[in-house]
């Protein structure tokens, strides 16, 4: 049996970064625990003070197939290139100009959501199909491929 896992991002603003990645991936913000109508109601019941309510957030695949992505507040900012990054499959099955046009369209959408474009890597057959490198609003690199 394969191990279950989640991906965790350190963040300055977990709620905002979770909202960004939910849009990128077609995920949704994870709902409150059973028995609560909202996160505010749950956090009130747990005694979490207002100033700690953005210490964590998570997004989940609405179809239940992809990993949960967890965002936790940390005091320090990002200081170096990621050693691990997400590849967002924005053009599966497409090749050549059609593939790169689809990647460009998705890159434009994500820049509109707050991503920063870093660079475009042209296709180099036979092994590289081409991709676009972006950063999320907190500077975490990811690729559209």
Biggest sheet details: 4 strands, mixed
- Give the termini distance in whole angstroms: 28 Å
Strand order of the largest sheet: 1-4-3-2
Shape: elongated
Sketch the topology as an H/E string, one letter per element.
Answer: EHEHEEEHEEE
pLDDT < 50 stretches? none
Average pLDDT over all residues = 94
| Class derived from helix and strand content | alpha/beta
State Rg.
17 Å
**If helices are DSSP runs of H or I spanning 4 or more residues, what is the number of helices?**
3
Using DSSP, what is the number of strands? 8
Query: Helicity range of the residues?
Result: 25-40%
- The proportion of residues in beta strands is 25-35%
Explain the overall architecture.
- The structure is a single chain.
- The protein is of the alpha/beta class and 145 residues long.
- It is built from 3 helices and 8 strands, in the order βαβαβββαβββ.
- The strands form 2 sheets. A 4-stranded mixed β-sheet has the order 1-4-3-2, covered by helices on one side. Strands 5-8-7-6 form a 4-stranded mixed β-sheet, with helices on one face.
- Strand 7 (131-135) and strand 8 form a beta hairpin.
- The chain is elongated, with a radius of gyration of 17 Å.
- The model has no long low-confidence stretch (mean pLDDT 94).
Keywords:
8 strands, 26% helix, 4-stranded mixed beta sheet, 3 helices, elongated, 145 residues, alpha/beta
Provide a quick synopsis of the model.
With 145 residues, the protein is an alpha/beta fold. It has helices spanning 14-25, 39-46, 96-113, and strands at 6-11, 28-29, 56-60, 68-73, 86-88, 116-121, 131-135, 141-144.
